[in-house]
C-alpha cells in the first residue's frame, strides 16, 4: 500500500516506514504530523478524489536541517559587475508511521 501526499507545494509517493525530506514544517523533533492525502493505492485499488478525504498519513518528525549548498553567480557582461550568493534550503525529515484508509 502506498499514498501520494502533498506538503510544501510538492507531492511525494510514500509507504509505511519510508524516510523523506520535505520543506521545513513548524513542528518539533519527535512530534507527529498528519499529512494531506491526494491518492491511495490499497492492494491495487486506486482511491482518489472525494473518496480519499477521510484518509490520512501520520509521520514522525525525526530531524530538521539544511540541504546541500548551492552557489548563485550573476554578472553583467562588459560592466565589471559580479555577485556571488550561496543558499542552503532548510528541510524537515519525516518517517512515515502509518497510512489510514
TrEMBL record:
InterPro entries: bL21-like (IPR028909), bL21-like_sf (IPR036164), Ribosomal_bL21 (IPR001787). One of its GO terms (cellular component) is ribosome. GO terms for biological process: translation. Pfam families: Ribosomal_L21p. GO terms for molecular function: rRNA binding; structural constituent of ribosome. SUPFAM superfamilies: L21p-like. Belongs to the bacterial ribosomal protein bL21 family. This protein binds to 23S rRNA in the presence of protein L20. Part of the 50S ribosomal subunit. Contacts protein L20. This is Large ribosomal subunit protein bL21. It comes from Candidatus Stercoripulliclostridium pullicola. The lineage of its organism: Bacteria, Bacillati, Bacillota, Clostridia, Eubacteriales.
Amino acid at each position: 500500500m502506498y499514498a501520494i501526499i502533498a506538503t510544501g507545494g510538492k507531492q511525494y509517493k510514500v509507504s509505511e516506514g519510508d524516510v523523506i525530506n520535505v520543506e521545513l514544517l513548524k513542528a518539533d523533533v519527535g512530534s507527529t504530523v498528519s499529512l494531506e492525502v491526494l491518492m491511495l493505492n490499497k492492494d491495487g485499488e486506486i482511491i482518489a478524489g472525494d473518496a480519499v478525504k477521510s484518509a490520512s498519513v501520520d509521520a514522525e518528525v525525526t530531524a530538521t536541517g539544511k540541504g546541500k549548498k548551492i552557489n548563485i553567480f550573476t554578472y553583467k557582461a562588459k560592466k565589471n559587475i559580479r555577485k556571488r550568493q550561496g543558499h542552503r534550503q532548510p528541510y524537515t525529515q519525516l518517517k512515515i508511521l502509518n497510512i489510514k484508509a
